[in-house]
Inverse folding.
């Protein structure tokens, strides 16, 4: 495998920091350039960033000078991993694509666009196939909302074997999901906030696209009706989801759990460095998964499922836990970039 040069847009934010940490020592990717806002541009990364992760800033990032999020900063990159707010991404990402760059984004700005794959590699790796003809000409790939990612991974084996029809999900979402400037301690300690702007709409829209089919004209969503209730809770990392599901037939919980336990996903044979094996783990103990004990399974890339049991309303219910800033953001984006590399979609750009 060639080494690809990687740029990070939004490098000083929480997800940007996770990307930098995960790129350290990566076998296929090498950090080349960092971009952020005018507040950070022109400064050494170590001076510009409010580093919020355990351990020190990786050397290869610390000494780099942060640039603006534009073509000039990323001109020597083969791929840009974007961790920008949606409003900023809406302007910046199309400009980078027009400049011929491959952009792999965490933001919600273009997730539902007809020409943009919304990818969880184990679930819908085939959604990137249409991009092969655009290699070297610029394109955009996105990863889903952090709660939608865990939900899609947990429900994929059920959808494939039995068909998922309706889903009701209540989330308990960690503070890191709101980024470095998330809620104040005063608003969150000893508290649960039953509202996260736009979050319920994202989960309800994205699940069908992820579990749907790629078609000539775009993506045909799976006809799944989703009702989401989202809550911010005072945990640091890890989104918990209480899920009730209606399947195409009456499926005993043991059979549903077995389908999830057997799930290996679509990329098990590709050797992607960030792909966990297996992508789903089931816990049998009645009080698991727990946020603190289970969020780091598989380095934060494995989704942990428990409490698979009958639901008197929709038939089946379960609890899902996924690491929001790893599986749901930086690790998910990196895995998407690895998928593009393995599938030959990522081109090495010639330098001007
Ligand atoms: P964040 O901590 O607020 O970081 C935002 C980044 O964007 C910073 O690097 C900031 O740079 C940069 N930025 C802000 N305004 C800019 C501008 N005008 N031009 C260029 N750069 C600008 O946010 P985050 O939590 O890392 O989230 C990043 C993206 O990932 C968002 O779209 C979010 O929805 C998505 N996401 C987050 C999670 C999560 O769990 N946190 C999960 C999934 C997806 P400065 O430091 O210079 O201001």
């Amino acid at each position: 495998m060639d080494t690809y040069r990687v740029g990070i847009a939004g490098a000083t934010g929480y997800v940007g920091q996770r990307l930098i940490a995960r790129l350290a020592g990566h076998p296929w990717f090498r950090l080349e350039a960092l971009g952020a806002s005018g507040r950070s541009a022109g400064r050494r990364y170590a001076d510009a960033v409010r580093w919020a992760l355990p351990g020190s800033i990786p050397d290869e990032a610390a000494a780099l000078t942060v640039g603006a999020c534009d073509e000039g900063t990323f001109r020597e990159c083969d791929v840009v991993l974007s961790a920008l707010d949606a409003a900023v991404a809406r302007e910046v990402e199309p400009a980078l694509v027009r400049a011929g760059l491959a952009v792999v984004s965490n933001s919600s700005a273009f997730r539902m666009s007809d020409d943009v794959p919304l990818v969880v590699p184990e679930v819908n790796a085939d959604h990137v196939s249409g991009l092969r003809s655009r290699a070297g000409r610029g394109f955009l790939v996105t990863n889903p909302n952090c709660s939608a990612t865990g939900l899609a991974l947990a429900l994929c084996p059920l959808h494939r074997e039995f068909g998922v029809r309706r889903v009701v999900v209540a989330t308990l979402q960690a503070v890191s999901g709101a980024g470095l400037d998330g809620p104040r301690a005063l608003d969150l300690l000893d508290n649960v906030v039953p509202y996260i702007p736009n979050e319920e709409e994202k989960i309800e829209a994205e699940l069908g696209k992820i579990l749907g089919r790629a078609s000539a004209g775009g993506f045909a969503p799976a006809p799944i009706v989703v009702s989401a209730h989202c809550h911010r809770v005072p945990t640091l990392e890890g989104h918990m989801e209480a899920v009730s599901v209606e399947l195409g037939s009456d499926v005993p919980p043991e059979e549903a759990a077995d389908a999830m336990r057997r799930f290996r996903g679509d990329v098990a044979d590709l050797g992607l460095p960030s792909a966990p094996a297996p992508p789903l783990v089931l816990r049998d103990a009645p009080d698991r998964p727990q946020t603190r004990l289970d969020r780091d399974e598989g380095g934060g890339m494995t989704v942990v499922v428990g409490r698979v049991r009958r639901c008197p309303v929709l038939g089946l219910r379960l609890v899902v836990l996924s690491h929001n800033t790893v599986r749901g953001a930086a690790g998910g984006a990196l895995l998407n970039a690895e998928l593009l590399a393995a599938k030959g979609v990522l081109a090495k750009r010639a330098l001007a």
